[in-house]
Automatic annotation (TrEMBL):
Protein name: AAA family ATPase
Record-annotated AAA domain positions: 8-178
Top-level taxonomy: Bacteria, Bacillati, Actinomycetota, Actinomycetes, Kitasatosporales
Amino acid sequence: MPKSKSKRVAGGNNKGGVGKSGWVANVAAALADEGCKVLVVDVDPQANLSRRMGRPYRKEKPLVTTAEVIKSGEPGVAADAIVPCGWGGIYAQRIDIIPSRFDLENRISEAAVIGARGRLARALQGADDGYDFTLFDCQPSLGHLTQVALAAARYAVALVEPEYDGVEGAVRFRDFVADEVNRTEMGNPELTFAAAVPSMVDGRLAAHAHHVQSLPSIFGADKVWDSIPARSVVKDAADEGLPLAELGSRSAEMREVYKAAAQRMIKEFA
């Protein structure tokens, strides 16, 4: 399969509620702030990322979504589903999205079909060559839809909520990606587990500090990136479907956090 000119990164965890969608949305914005052109692909039927980025499903004005893209799987067909994100300013110019909706769940029943896991990778052939980064928001599982995203990605990043279940879910995600048999069966032997990113970290909690300190021994010190702290402004932006920049000065700290994350991605995934 031809290599994409875009650097494709999948964010995942086998557990939900760990900050995956928030990380993808905010890193996309930070990459755009750095001058990058970004394509975001929502591969979760909950479609939280699509709503947060201004592209919720609307019955009266439906968009082509990942459900149709994956159902087709024809080379390059993803180009028909790409739309600008719903944010304003430079984000409207630099961030595009393939949105999701609830009926993406229907693709799970096709898991046993030969070649099903490679449909998104085929659909993206040539469609994302004009982007610096393609970011995938995975479903919180290791099932078919996550495998479809991983089959299309080059790098996998685990978002790690510093709770027991969040760490365990990230380990399962890491181990799945690291397994050579899994990568081969997905048709993507070059897929690399790139990073574990502590997310939603509450510095007031001793348990969070304990789990964050344990991550280098679990994932390797070189794989553990800087923590994403838990801040109400991130939730406020997500609830309102706005980029952090729209929330003014109170978002300054978190914009710097995501700026550092974006700069590391640009460096690491050169």
